[in-house]
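Hi U.,

Before I forget, here's the chain from the pilot set. I'm dumping it here mostly so it's searchable later in email.
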Amino acid sequence: MLDLMQSIRNSLRKASRARLIGLLAPAAGVSLLLGASACSDDIQQAQPQRQIQVQTAPQPNESEPPTQAASQSQLESQAQPAQPTQQERQTAAVGAQHPTFLPRDATETAEGIPIIRDDLRHPVYGRDWSTEWGIRIIEFDELLQGAVRDRIPALTGPNYVTLAEASTYYSEETPLVQINVKGDPRGYPLEILTWHEIVNDIVGGVPVTVTFCPLCNTAIAFESQIGEEVYQFGVSGLLRNSDLVMYDRNTESLWQQSSGRAIVGRMVGARLRYVPASIVSFGQLRSAFPDALILSRETGWPRAYGQNPYRNYDNPETGGPYGIFFDRDSIDPRLPPAERVVAIEGPSGAAVAYAWSALEAERALHDSFDGIDLVVFWTPGARSALDASVISNARQVGATAVFETSLDGRTLSFQPNPDDASDQTFVDEQTGSTWDIFGRGLAGPLEGEQLTRVIHSDHFWFAWQAFHPTTRLLQLVEHDPTADQ
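Structure:
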């Protein structure tokens, strides 16, 4: 077994060095040469051209159920809210226009996934949980125990400090999860979330749950109210495809953090609505929102905040000394397992991933996906929370954000701001206006405007692909023009 794992890891390393990982994928790729990568003719003769390769995974077998979108009849059978206005969409979730709750007695599927109904209880956890194990959309053997329930304590109604107070112990590069609900910006440092994984709170008058799964590098926020009831979430200690499985204290149903979907219990058929969230640096948040509040270290729990218990975990090729829990039979070789990707689930349930190596090279990457024209921004600054044993000593990995390129009927195209030595801003080619990582117009004719956010999350590649095996992937490759001659 050790020889097999070593062989797999060596193969991944070779693929990464070649930067032609797409050739290992079972599907053919299409190469798109970005304008920002173009070189002069004589330079092109001497150097390979940098390209973004689009990889589409094989289509699933027709007998397999879809993993996301509910049928049209199911959607129409639910009372749907009116379509949001442009202003409402500034904070709404693209890809989260699914029903908030599908009554379990109204359908035998949850968004197209068959619901299993039987009298079984989980053979290990069934004794200690009041979960309705006989209602689920997964098999029991998909759950692995990583810790005892609540051993990682979720925070509820936590304390906050001002940016000025937090600046006495946080650096400009400190990574945190940023949300802004109805003009109430908050920052959740990863040094705290790593130890607690879930924060239940009210932000901007809206009940929210902010989550971070260190094993998958996923920071995702949700609205935690369904109908008239507010749900409080805890850390179940269970994992599925290495991803955090939450449980609600109301019904003890199990929920998948990566999707916000109830997977076992009475709430199967429910799915939480996303709240736009992204990992940025402390300095970026302070520059954009000087009145933002920061989650306090005074949590009531004795934890070594600032230290990283997952040291060297995010090594792009190996996943660090702890390894990676591949809860499936195969490893997708299109990228090294722990390379970061920006991941999006579109309105139809289609999935796309953008490799950070490509984003770091281009900084503003345009794409059309699932009917959405979008741009993915990348900026330097934020440190990794899963690298060095002390986060303040970790390497910088940067920050990402995704926005629609349409603004008030006009389509904009973006590029890095050539006049910004810090590489923190962008300019649009149509008006020359300046924009930041939060999609705010800072200067120029469009100053004061706000781009519409597209819900995204940063994942390790292995984690995103485990739940979305047919995902489309955009990655950086080196193309030698002499090979075409």
